[in-house]
Amino acid sequence: MRYQLYYWPTIQGRGEFVRLALEQAGAEYIDVARMSGKDRGVSALMHGLAAGGTTPFAPPYLKAGRLVIGQTANILLYLGDHHALAPKDETGRLWTHQLQLTIADFVAEVHDTHHPLAASLYYEDQKPAAKRYSKTFLAERVPKYLGYFERILKRNPRGKRFLAGARLSYVDLSMFQVMAGLDYAFPNAMAKRRRSYPLLRELSARVAALPRIAAYLGSKRRIPFNNDGIFRRYPALDTRK
Question: What CATH number has the domain spanning 90-210+232-237?
Answer without folding.
Answer: 1.20.1050.10
